[in-house]
Amino acid sequence: MTTSSGFQCATCGAYHTGYPMCYGPSAPEIWYTIPEAEREARCLLSSDQCIVDEKYFFVLGRVEIPIIETGEEFVWLAWVSLSAENFNRTCELWEEEGRESEPPYFAWFSSALPYAPTTLHLEAILHTRPLGERPAIELQECAHPLYQFQKNGMALAELQALTERIMHG
C-alpha cells in the first residue's frame, strides 16, 4: 500500500485521493503573535529565514518521519530558532557548495504543530544539507509524540488521523 491510494475521511466522510506528505507553517510562531500592522517594521520573513525585532533568528527546516508500512516519508516543514552567531553562520554558508560539512547547530523548535503537548520550545539540532536542500531538524530525546514519530516512524493510520486534524482542525 502506498500513500497515493488515499483514504476515507473519518471527519467529513469524503474519500481523499492520496495523502499530502508535507505540511508546515509559513512563519515561526512568534511572527503570528505580532500585530499585522507591526510586522513589516519588526520582521524580515523569507521562505527560509526570519528575523524578528533584530534579536530572534529562525530557519525553516524539515522534520522527516518514516511511514512504517510504505517506506515513504512524511515531512513537517518547521521553524527553529538559532543563536545570532549560528544564524549568521548559516547565512554565510547559504549559497556555498559543501555547506553540509558544517557541524550541526543547537536550536529551539519554533512551530506550533498539531500535537499535545505543544511542540514549541522542544530542543533540536539543525543539520545543514547540500546546496538547494532545506536543513534537517533532529528533535532531541524526549517523551513528546513528535520525537517518538521521528525516531520510530508513523503508521499509515496515524498519518490518516494527522491528515484529518490538519484538514479539519
UniProtKB/TrEMBL annotation:
It comes from the Bacteria. InterPro entries: DUF2199 (IPR018697). Pfam families: DUF2199. This is DUF2199 domain-containing protein. It comes from Undibacterium pigrum.
